[in-house]
Specification:
Length: 266
Amino acid sequence: MFFHAHPDDEALLTAGTMAMLAAEGHRVVLVVATAGERGLAEMEPGEALGRTRLDELYTSAAALGCARVECLGYGDSGLRPKGGSAEERPDNAFIDADSESAAKALATILHEEQADLLTIYDPAGGYGHPDHVQVHRVGKRAAQIAGTEIVLEATVNRDPLVRLLRVGGRVYKFPPEFDVRAFESAYSPSETITHRVNVRKYTRQKRAAMAAHVSQASGGDSDRTLAVMLKVPGPLYRLVFGTEWYVRRDLPPGARLSHPFDRWPP
């Protein structure tokens, strides 16, 4: 089971792994906490955007071979730290949700599916989005309730990413939301990563999952991050997006495993 905060997060962080596991015959389940109705798009934030983004999520999930898609139904907290003030957030914002109640809702699905594995985010939520931080808390507790043995924190190898962004920034003007300095403390340093999953065989499905999220490729005053990623040529796309990274906290830091179900020690 792959637990994400909003539609499109699955395409960016875990799509290759999902497609790989589905191709291997595993039942892959995708759960999102929110519909992402406060995301930046050409249409106004709100219920209509949420419905659009869920439709995009189903298209993405189909491309990846998912057997089931669920939304927990919480409100998108927005990108500002802690979602902004309480007055700016929806009444049911995920960041304001009771973590234990949300964990029990997720654990119910884990029980129903008899899931062997759950993916969440790292404690900082990758780049710090409040809903991503809540995914970590809720997912970790849900796995405890359900007795799910394998919990992987979906992340990005920070070290080569920062180097790439520094070089890229010399020749390309990044979108306003893309603060290179923020990535210097985001995600995970190389020495903490336990799983480096080669998904180059599944980048066609990963690209299709990204392309499904049409609403998130537009909006704002400049190119959106997703739109920029979709412009990367095929061979370079396989190189850049052909690895997905995870941290499993019950393994030694830096264990070099290549599949979510690899055993330790090898």
